[in-house]
Design goal:
A hairpin with a 4-residue loop joins strand 1 and strand 2. This protein is α+β, with helices and mostly antiparallel strands. 34% of the residues are buried.
């Protein structure tokens, strides 16, 4: 089920719920576990989160260990990362997860909560509820790798090689003309 059957959120519907103190962006963290690089990112605003859910995220990697690093370019390692649909979350739940945070994430996305907020139109209460859902989704992703992957806020790069240094970049696949979200970038040393 598409979260936005009538198209992506507009600037008018987004600005009420976002702080003007900080530009919308994605924050990316990396961790080398000895065999792969684990990536986790978070949109800093509810609107950036919704736009990522709608347009999808793109993950790119550059190998900084190459001798001619000045001519090295980014390669796309994952494209069109989007949250799981209802059936995807059901499949995850059948595998007996270590905790229930993936269920919280699934309820936020597919339990009708976001649709209810959109139906109410822009207002202060809806904006506050929207912020709370965004926070709960990020908390679920922080506490569960399964939730992060299901929310399309996490990825494991199993193609990374030991003894290298990589620069990772995450961005929206498509920017909204009314509401740009800056990409996130982070290096990872695989040693």
């Amino acid at each position: 089920t598409d979260l936005f059957p009538d198209g992506p959120p507009t600037a008018d519907s987004l600005t009420l719920s976002d702080s003007l103190d900080e530009l919308p962006h994605l924050r990316l963290l990396t961790y080398w576990d000895g065999t792969s690089v684990r990536l986790r990112w978070a949109p800093n605003s509810p609107a950036a989160w919704l736009l990522g859910n709608h347009h999808g995220d793109r993950l790119e990697r550059m190998d900084l260990s190459e001798p001619d690093v000045a001519n090295t370019t980014f390669e796309v390692i994952a494209d069109d990362l989007r949250p799981l649909d209802v059936e995807g979350w059901r499949t995850l739940d059948n595998f007996g997860q270590e905790n229930d945070y993936h269920l919280v994430a699934a309820e936020i996305l597919h339990g009708g909560l976001l649709e209810e907020l959109a139906a109410d139109g822009p207002n202060v209460v809806a904006a506050q509820n929207f912020r709370e859902y965004h926070s709960l989704a990020l908390l679920s992703a922080d506490l569960s790798t399964v939730a992060a992957d299901g929310l399309a806020l996490g990825f494991t790069d199993r193609t990374a090689q030991a003894g290298r240094e990589y620069l990772y970049k995450v961005s929206l696949r498509e920017q909204s003309p009314d509401f740009a979200v800056r990409e996130g970038a982070q290096t990872a040393r695989t040693e």
